[in-house]
Amino acid sequence: MKKDLAVFKEIRQKVNSGLYKYRTKEQIDSIYNWAENEIENLTTYRDFYNLIVQLTDYEGSLHNDTSIPNKKWQNLRKEKSGYFPLPIKWIEGKWIVNLENGKIPLGAEIISVNDIPITDLIFELGKYYTTDGINLTGKRLGIRAHFARYFRLNYGLKDNFKIIYKKHNADKSEEIVINSVSYAKYYKRFNKRHSQPFDQIYYADLEPNQKYSFKQINSSSGILKVHSFGMGNITSKEHKKYAKFLDSVFTQIEKKNLKNLIVDVRQNGGGDDPNDLITYSYLTQRKFQENKQAWISFKKIPLLKYYNIGIPKFIRPLVVGKYNRELQEIFPLEKNGKYYQDENRDDHKIRLPNGKAFKGKIYLLISPAVASAGSLFASMVAGNKNTTVIGEETMGGYYGHNGHTPLEYKLPKSKIVTKFSIVNLEQDVSEKANQYYNRGIIPDIEINQTYDDFLNNKDTQLNYILNLITSE
Fold it and tell me: How far apart are the first and last CA of the chain?
């Protein structure tokens, strides 16, 4: 454990440009001092994995990921018992049961599990789902899907669970002991969760024609939904089809003189350049660029013996050489040990608004699922003076993030794999008083799904905007 921790620390210091993005050097040094001391108290592989997970999460990057070897994951998937039996979901500040016809009623609030208060549980399990900065809303996504798995990773297998819960609007709480289930049975129940008709799009593998749509909803308003920017780069057929779609939509908007446009990116977890940028070109009146600056922390990929590339160590330098030359071409400017892009890169190209760019009121719908290229796009739209942002804080940062280029390393003893994006990005957004450096995009009007709308699988946020538009 000491050997692997030392390697993990060296990897972060030499390769990860986001190590000090949201944490000071003193803070990072402090948590590693804690980890080195904590190792003396650890006895199992799972203990050590959880330690590395905590260090990974502490940095604050949604592109960070640390995982156990695939063989161990496959063994977990075969476990026949030991898992929490119920999917749960965050609604109106409470974690509630998200399954019908179970031993606990649909919508009942979970108070504690095995004598651990649910607030403490959520805080503890949040480390398994990384988000930008100190964002917490995004962690709800991982917990609502993988609560049973996270519980097992953190606390081990359990024969049963003592659950204290409270029915909706009840004065008194109740207690029940429920037997554990298998890994497979938990996920089978999750796929049959009550909210599945409402939130399945976030988990779906979307076909090209499901990723975006436009609809005129009345004589003055329309709604543009973009669930993903994963449409390939500028040379792909899917990108070209999307570009034609945008041109036809904004031709229609201009022709019909629409005054209000709802832009719904609540399920958009990112994708490919330049799909985010061309979409923004139809929603702005300013010149813009993708990033104000972008840098990495090395000239040549360090620590090749731990680089998880799947080829023998002795030929790695040859294979990585081409990759290094590409990185040196992209990041040619060295300043104080950092390697920056120059003005010749597409990321820094000054772009102009499209001639058909929308000039009316924009209502931007966001959620904790918005990340990476999705949050870059949303932050740029949120910076517009004609935009009102509605919904919940995104997991992706407003001012920047670490993204674009992932690298993966394997620790020598535990074989734990750690993956992170190496490009430290500062996004081309305006400073706003309600946006914080270490948080996601903060909505101007925070609207969450209500309890009644959860029961009926209704869209509280969209209905709020529709009522807002009709009342103006």
Answer: 62
Residue 14 main-chain phi, psi, to 5 deg: -95, -25
Nearest to 341 by CA among 291, 272, 273, 302: 291
Instruction: Render each residue's pLDDT in the chain as its tens digit; 472 residues.
Output: 999 999 999 999 999 999 999 999 999 999 999 999 999 999 999 999 999 999 999 999 999 999 999 999 999 999 999 999 999 999 999 999 999 998 999 999 999 999 999 999 999 999 999 999 999 999 999 999 999 999 999 999 999 999 999 999 999 999 999 999 999 999 999 999 999 999 998 888 888 889 999 999 999 999 999 999 999 999 999 999 999 999 999 999 999 999 999 999 999 999 998 999 999 999 999 999 999 999 999 999 999 999 998 777 777 778 888 889 999 999 999 999 999 998 888 888 889 999 999 999 999 999 999 999 999 999 999 999 999 999 999 999 999 999 999 999 999 999 999 999 999 999 999 999 999 999 999 999 999 999 999 999 999 999 999 999 987 6
- Whether residue 443 is preceded by a cis peptide bond, meaning omega within 30 degrees of 0, is no
What is the pTM (predicted TM-score) of this model? Answer: 0.94
